[in-house]
Amino acid sequence: MQRAVELAQEVVGSTSPNPAVGAVLVKDGVEIGTGTTQPPGQDHAEIVALKQASDQARGATLYTTLEPCCTWGRTPPCTKAIITAGITEVHYAVIDPNPDVSGKGRDELAAAGIVVVEEESEGARELYEAFAKQITTGTPFVTVKYAMTLDGKIATHTGDSKWVTGPEARGFVQQMRRVCDAILVGVNTALTDDPYLTARDDDGTPLERQPLRVVLDSVCHTPVKSVMFNQPGSTLIATTQAAPDERVLALEQTGAEVVVLPAGEDRRVDLRALLSHLGSRGVVNLLVEGGGSVHGAFFDMGLVDKVYAFVAPVIVGGETSLSPVEGSGIVMMADAWTLTGTRTEQIGPDWLIIGYPTRKSSVMDSFDTDDEADNETDDLEIE
Q: pTM of the full predicted structure?
């Protein structure tokens, strides 16, 4: 099964909006076929493996990272092909979160006399966290990524931010871009950094498949000469009715798509409306690479699903130096966001912290704390 997981990881991003699946066929202890999900409209992983194994598939065991589908979409159901091929045993790592499939594929295989086994494997569930959210809510999985110094700054007091982290961390970010469907920044990032917002290979060459570039810009202040408009891939400007018609037209003439969305109480683009729009166009993984204002807005509205925080072992100081998360913030520490399921990794000289944000109060409710423990915590705080 771990071999199947590794195969799936190799194609994450290239199969969207379909989930990336890895499949391995084994007979008499010998691998006779492997497969991964092909781009949309093409074969699923199980079908690729079955075609590779051909007649040898009869009597074999199939290991697949996701429960085989049993519905017609752009391709026929995999369950029918598995049954027809004479597979005798199927091991899957994760039940399909698609409500049209969830458990039904497993049951169809079992009804055909196939032994079906749910077999958890490291890394399998993470493969489908984004697909699970998009298929059940219609909105993309939101990952906020930022790099900060050891004292919590994303730039100096002059605004200089190149570079907070080392080349290894920046290379890791390129890997993240390669597997996401869209990258989002705010207009301030577009104005200040004039970013390319492209996915590139190890040599710095833009890849053929590019994530959709999304700029939050409530009044269309994005410069028409922004370098991103000359890069491969598409750019979407998310704006509001407050944007002057001439600015909208000027941006459209660069080749960008301008989408007018409802404004929130702050007169900025309503983020929930934006996520619904992106979900409707098949965006499953959204990577937010904005500044503190954009990140703060996502956190204030409780829209962040995952955090990748790079921490560089440098200190810059400065009262006015920017921080990675701004917005309104919380009033009491008991209401702070805390990361669960965290893991850390050293990348070059920097550290990466990955986790899932949850309200601290909801996490603390699961523990039996007492006044004495609270007092001990207070004694440790230093102003």
A: 0.89
